[in-house]
Amino acid sequence: MSQMSPASTPAKSQPREPETIFALSSGRGPSAIAVVRISGPRARFGLETFVEKIPAPRRAAYVTFRDPDSRETIDDGLALWFPAPASETGEDIVELHLHGGRAILAAVFRVLGRIDGFRPAQAGEFTRRALLNGKLDLAAVEGLGDLIAAETEAQRRQALAQFRGALSAKVEAWRARLVEALALVEAAIDFSDEDLRGDLPASARKIAGELAAEIKPVLADAARGERLREGFTVAIAGAPNVGKSTLLNRLAEREAAIVSPIPGTTRDAIEVALDLAGVPVVLVDTAGVRESNDPVEAEGVRRARARAAAADLVLWLGDHSRTDARPEAIARNVWAVRTKADLIDADAQRDLRNQGCIVVSAKTGFGIDELIAKLSNEAERLGGEPALVTRARQRHALAEAARHLEAVLPAPPPPEELIAEELRLAARALGRVTGRVDIEEVLDEIFKNFCIGK
Ligand SMILES: Nc1nc2c(ncn2[C@@H]2O[C@H](COP(=O)(O)OP(=O)(O)OP(=O)(O)O)[C@@H](O)[C@H]2O)c(=O)[nH]1
Ligand SMILES: [Mg+2]
Are the C-beta atoms of residues 38 and 47 closer than 8 Å to each other? Predict the structure, then answer.
């Protein structure tokens, strides 16, 4: 317990042993409880520095944390000890559950920072070690990042499935079959003189065909997984003054955008995040579309058109006074919405409905529940079901695997060496999804969004 190294003595160089890292793993304080994690070969020593007795592995013990120099009590709390390799990072881990006060944490970090071989963890470093120690694969790490960032139920479900290996299990099973197919072709190449070999390349190509037929539907999901991660965008667009900002405020249940009777009020696109039936929706209010000599308004209109063209769904608004035809660029998923229903009579409302319009009044709330229900259904249709593929990185790797598999299918069959090469490339592409191959290339990309303590 007295092995603290004074700041002046240089740390002994131990090139092979990884450093022991520590960080606050719970949210920023002050809070009722804060969890400090320590991972690395000297984690146990880190705990011994504060407490008299190490708890039994994986059992929480109520302990007194003392300053090792002054023997002054820093705090009372819980300590846990997870010996390697049965820990989250695969290394020795210690968890200190303290009261989440700034002075307590500062005292604990001061002590830890002075121990030989200890240093504060970098962003995502615990997870990175878990990955390098084979505790998590790459897809699971991505799932973990999404799980922590998940804001809605559907996002949470999708992230949890990925964290628990839904995608990895599938990809690994495909890869195992691919390796079998590869072995068949290689056997054929090795035993080319023997009569007994049967048509091994044909069997390998049959497996490749089956695999391609399984991978392609997973890719043909209209990027649902990515959309669910990022949120599905609904743009509110139309002529000036038809009530776009008022509708946004109504749906957001707050005064997010300025409303006024003066046409051309909104200039910048205004975004509001909503949770519709568990699906994250980004609602965007835009400038009223019209020709304008005012350069600021003209820029607003340009942005409005761009946002509408890029949105997953456009609500094209019109009122009793004007219902402009929508610009050509906004052609895909558009719903015609008639606003200010309170200003027209029931017959006129019915006529509009018969023409396929959604009729609402943001002022009285008329038709708003119906609009929300329709939006929820659409959000669920476009992104409610958790998907297997959640990132462009995974999609590219799977698409590449499918391409190499398909390359061996055409008749007459390509030469055996070529089949073997394509199958190898396909296996490599699949290996990239879980990080079995080329892991270094993507590490920084994946960890850039992780924060310290993860
Ligand atoms: N009676 C009635 N008036 C409404 C309704 N919705 C909006 N208005 C009025 O219409 C005017 C324009 O509303 P905004 O929401 O600012 O319209 P906008 O489409 O955002 O207008 P720009 O930003 O200028 O393009 C305001 O005076 C609102 O009070 C409605 O449902 N009923
Ligand atoms: Mg507006």
Answer: yes
Q: Where are the alpha helices (DSSP H) in 331-386?
A: 346-354, 368-383
Does residue 327 have its Cβ closer than 6 Å to ligand 1? no
In the reported structure, the alpha carbon of residue 240 is separated from the centroid of ligand 1 by a whole-number distance in angstroms of 9
pLDDT tier, 450 (very low <50, low <70, confident <90, very high otherwise): confident
Instruction: Give yes or no for a contact between 286 and 304, defined as CB atoms under 8 angstroms apart.
Output: yes
Q: Which two tokens stand for residue 394?
A: 């995974």
Question: By mean pLDDT, which of 43-47, 228-232, 344-348, 384-388 is the weakest?
Answer: 384-388
Could you tell me the pLDDT band of residue 195, with boundaries at 50, 70 and 90? low
Which atom from ligand 1 is nearest to the alpha carbon of 249? 15
251-279 pLDDT, tens digit per residue, is: 999 999 999 999 999 999 999 998 887 88
- Strands across the sheet with 118-120, in order? 61-66, 73-82, 93-100, 31-39, 20-24, 118-120
Please count the CA atoms within 13 angstroms of the CA of 24 that sit on its side-chain side.
Answer: 20
Task: Report pLDDT digits (tens) over 281-298.
Answer: 999 999 999 999 999 999
Measure 342 CA to ligand 2 centroid, in angstroms: 19
What spacing in Å lies between the alpha carbon of 246 and ligand 2's midpoint? 7
- Rounded to an integer, the average pLDDT of 306-316 is 92
Domains, the chain, in order of start with CATH, read 20-121 (3.30.1360.120), 141-221+390-447 (1.20.120.430), 229-383 (3.40.50.300)
244 CB near ligand 1 (under 6 Å):
yes
Residue closest via CA to ligand 1's atom 21 equals 241
Query: Is the CB of residue 290 less than 8 Å from the CB of residue 211?
Result: no
Q: What is the mean predicted confidence (pLDDT) over 161-186?
A: 93
| Residues surrounding ion ligand 2 at CB below 5 Å | 244-245, 265-266
Q: Is 343 in the pocket of ligand 1 (CB under 6 A)?
A: yes
